[in-house]
Sequence to fold (445 residues):
Amino acid sequence: MRAELHTLSALDARAAILEGRLSSERLVQACLERIGDDPLRAWAQLEPEWALAQAREMDHIRKSGKATGALHGVPVGIKDIVDTRDLPTECGSAAFAGRQPSSDAEIVNRLREAGAVILGKTKTTELAFVHPTDTLNPHDTARSPGGSSSGSAAAVAAGHVPLAIGSQTGGSVIRPASYCGLFGFKPTRGMLSRTGVLQTSATLDHLGTFARSLEDLALLSQSIASFDPRDTSSLARPRPDLLGGARAAVPVEPDIAFFEFPFHDQLAPDAREGLEAVIDVLGDRVTRLPVSASLSGLIDVHLTIHEYEFCQHLREVIDTHGDQLSDSLKTVIERGRGISQTQYEDAQAVRESAEAFCAKHFNDFDAILAPAATGEAPLRASGGTGDPIFCRIWSLTGLPALTLPVLVGENNLPIGVQLIGGREEDDRLLRTAAWVQATLQSAEE
Fold:
């Protein structure tokens, strides 16, 4: 049975642990054996004995009859930009080598409260931006798993761990999930606390989650959602029932919008054909909408805010450790420092207008359908982690977005499709996603 434990869903694993059919220690040991010497290079920090000690503690808690959490005994990977008091947080950069936080990020506190076992820290691109790490894609080791949440996506896809935490400022959850054949979720900005997480853009940074099923994705996201007054974007109100949303039947078949963006010409032919096949199956539930020049221009607005704020937030690192940064990141910094305060403020005004437009849009539609990536995972030899162009607008507007792993490309590699929901309607988005998934599966039968 141990050889199969790494394939358990988080929900099934938790149920087996609480019912005494499986120990957390046995599950964690199976995950560690699956990782082995980490040939995919998915992990930045891994301390097996520390992880097993957490698992034994969870088993003791269960046996003693004490309260258990929603993730009790379930191992989780955490992107190495999230502070952990027990493991270094180096942010994929020599500038942070050996950095040991004195306290956990708020999201780690929530994981501990839910009873999760922190298995280790997953690799990230340099400072969660453009320069790739050395992590390999489990489906084809010649290809990138995407970025910046490279290790988190690869670890879940390879069965190292059932759940992982990532982050997204541009497309760093949605795109790696697509490349690795996973469910990836970026909740509404403000649902998950960012306290104790590397800040690259106060406006655009989101935390997100990876799993191998929609329900697991909802379980993890719901378990870590909380209000945090230290995070200026945090929403001081109740969170939606995400797991309930993923499990709910739609009251009526949803209405889905598909925007005809001019940059869809960047889609690979197999990705375009697959997306059109999805639209055909969904039929009259999808409405194609033309796109104004101003909406298409939001890509540049996102880049302006991202690069300007990156240079502002990481000014000290750039000034004191500039010689330790990659050339590709130095190019971004040079652009960011060339953006004027006026250009930045104008971009913020456009962002606010776009958010208002989107709020009205979801009066008529349950979700937006979009590509998750341009196609299959790019070759690592290309030097990048793929283009996040199909994610930037939804990161800019702070809307919830998720990847459904429903397509296969010409090289037999996964391609996801993206669904975007209304602000703070994350449960509605998950409900719509479950309907889309079920509809597509029925069409295949």
